[in-house]
Amino acid sequence: MKPKMPRSLAVFALAATLLQPQTDAPPPLVAALDADANGVLTASELPAQARRVLLFALDADDDGTLSARELDTIGKGGAGRGRKTRRGPDNWDFSEESTNGIRIVRNLDYVTGNAYTGGRGKLDLYIPAGDGPHSVILFFHGGGLYNGDKVTLVELGPRLASLGYLVAAPNYRLSPEYAYPAYIEDAATAFRWTWDHISEYGGDRNRIAISGGSAGGHIAALLSVDERYLRARDLDLGHIRASLPITGLMNAERAGRERHLLTWKADSELVREASPIRYVATGLPPMLITVAAGDTENRRTQNVEMFDAMKEAGAEVEFEWLVDRTHNSILPNMTKEGDRTVELLLDFLRRHGMAP
Fold this sequence. Notes:
Layout lengths: L6 H12 L9 H6 L7 E2 L5 H11 L6 E2 L1 H9 L18 E5 L2 E8 L12 E6 L6 E7 L15 H7 L3 E5 L11 H16 L5 E11 L1 H9 L4 H4 L10 E5 L10 H8 L3 H6 L13 E6 L4 H17 L3 E6 L7 H5 L5 H12 L5
Parallel strand pairs: 6-7, 6-8, 8-9, 9-10, 10-11
Antiparallel strand pairs: 1-2, 3-4, 4-5, 5-7
Helix pairs in contact: 1-9, 3-9, 6-7
């Protein structure tokens, strides 16, 4: 029987070896994990810590295994090599409808180009009744930065619009096909589009808040503390009226090693660069950090540390626990009348000049 590499070491080595260009011979780690020497890694052969994410993101043919070709996609880089992209239905044609006084405009292009096929450069608008101008919430979907789609906001968008807020829900490029900084560049581009065009739909560009849950919370936090991406689009942090990250990743160094591989190329400097906590300073947009009390200890701790760091730096920040919520139960409950998370967010917005 072929000796196996200890799994505790394998998960840390997997990122580095998979990034190497593939040859006819499998890289040493793949060979070490490939118990039956058939050139394919099954779920049972993958390190447990990396199994769920790597299979989900790289198993392009959904056969439950990782072939040499699928593993090779990370090392070679670029689009169109069969990588898996998780998104919503293929209904990318422009469409518009009204329901209960809410106007819904789907699939507006905020950016175009070869990198944005499959709806990645599109956003949806949920527009309240009345002429406005309405306060705007630019809301980024979750999904670990390798999964998800704006379609997950088809219930929350109308809910917030019924309360008087115009919601813009963009897609963005996902890893592993597009690694960091693609997602935060797209977030800044979506903000630029919103600034330029939201008045055409009844929005007030001087009252734009950014929010999102999980990966979307990470994006909202990073966009509101690392000014480079807005400055590249001739804007700055002063254009963000408020930031509302919901149970987001504040320290990417604490993400799982498989996500380091998929999103940050297993590059420790990129991981540090993508960490919102690294950019804490005074003069940032007002931020409300909300975290599920039932989330993982890792996620709770890094959000508390972000709050403490911002307070120490003199930034304007508040913190609220989302009682009786887990990481995955926040969004479904936000669509319900009287949800405390929504009440907390909207109270914060009203206190910062963003009444409906």
